[in-house]
Amino acid sequence: MAQITTDGLSKEYHSGDEAVVAVEDLDATIGDGEFLVLVGPSGCGKTTTLRCIAGLEDVTDGRILFGDRDMTDRRARNRDVAMVFQNYALYPHMNVRENMGFGLKLSTDMPAAEIDDRVESTAEMMGIEELLDQKPKELSGGQQQRVALGRAIVREPEVFLMDEPLSNLDAKLRAEMRTELQELQHELGVTTVYVTHDQTEAMAMGDRIAVMNDGVLQQVGTPEEVYRSPANEFVADFIGSPSINLFAADVERPARRDAAEGRGATLRGPGGFSYALDDASAVEDRDRVRVGVRPEDLRLVERGGNEATVTVTEHMGNENFLYLEMGGEELTARIDSSLRPEPGDSVRIEFDEEALYLFDPESGDAVKTKTDELGASVTEVR
């Protein structure tokens, strides 16, 4: 197995005199046997990063190391990696047995009998031993995905690279395959880099997740670290479903007498929003902030809090999603299924100060998160 290190990895594409930066100065270390998920919106550079690690793209600048071995200029066939693609990339004229064994036949001098033994044992592990003599066109999407994974596993590589391998499956099968993939990776202990645009998939699968945007690595951490202590507003907004509620607020300073008595600042926002802070240390030098509150941290109260108007109620069975309007800002609350306000109803909402996120309105950097100290449990990248 191998630890993967990207040291100042950059990748540019050129069109005439114009350069497009796909990945910029990416520094990351993926532990030996770790399952790391690269996540971000379309065009953020995650697939380009994966292809650079695989050797399918030349690196513009920086290095790629497997352990202490520099792989930057090595060809893909010499990197001992196995890649699983979104479209499975199975050979239509070969049956499952031939598809799974083709890589070993092409890249090793392993005897045919040994290749067959390895293919059959891998097929049994994947639950597709009865499909070995069938062609890809005879298989369902889930079966084709298992064959593609089996073809990677049979090679026993140092590194697995997976580029949105579940995106063509229906929701139920995706959930099943997610679990199977994690079980397989833990059983095999192979260093794995997995690319997805689905933050729910990233949170469910990764030992750690790496969030990218516009070619820049924003943050690396465990799912809980990234969720509770996002490094910036982009990460907070991208990670979580439903998304975090975000809006701008002015910081109102207390009068000297109130300050002397230990009263904190007050946040003033849209629709008469007002929130008195017990601890104003995060905003002591600021006149304006961006406020963030997770949907599950909003609750309905009979009095106090802030007023909002219900626009839509989604009944999810075990819970309800409540969509609200407050001074032109749209908010979402995740509430108990027994609470069913109707569109047009006026409700009052509140949250605990411990659940409050605050971000700098210019840089987007987090100034307060759910943890006491921003850096205590988070790896910040940029």
Structural domains: how many: 2
Task: Report the end-to-end length measured between terminal Cα atoms.
Answer: 29 Å
Reading side by side through the largest sheet, how are the strands ordered? 6-7-8-3-9-10-22
* CATH fold title of the largest domain: Rossmann fold
Number-wise, the strands total 22
Helix share, percent: 10-25%
**CATH H level, superfamily name of the largest domain:** P-loop containing nucleotide triphosphate hydrolases
CATH class type of the largest domain: Alpha Beta
Rg on CA atoms, Å: 25 Å
> Which sheet architecture does the biggest sheet show?
7 strands, mixed
Structure description:
The chain is elongated. Strand 12 and strand 13 form a beta hairpin. The C terminus is likely disordered. The chain is of the alpha+beta class. The strands form four sheets. The chain has a seven-stranded mixed β-sheet with strand order 6-7-8-3-9-10-22, sandwiched between helices. The protein has a six-stranded antiparallel β-sheet with strand order 13-12-11-14-20-21. It has a five-stranded antiparallel β-sheet with strand order 15-19-16-17-18, with no helix packed on it. The chain folds into two domains: about 230 residues, Rossmann fold (3-Layer(aba) Sandwich); about 140 residues, Beta Barrel (OB fold (Dihydrolipoamide Acetyltransferase, E2P)). It starts with a strand and ends with a strand. Helix content is about 25%, strand content about 35%. The longest helix is centred in the middle third of the chain and has 18 residues. The chain has nine helices and 22 strands.
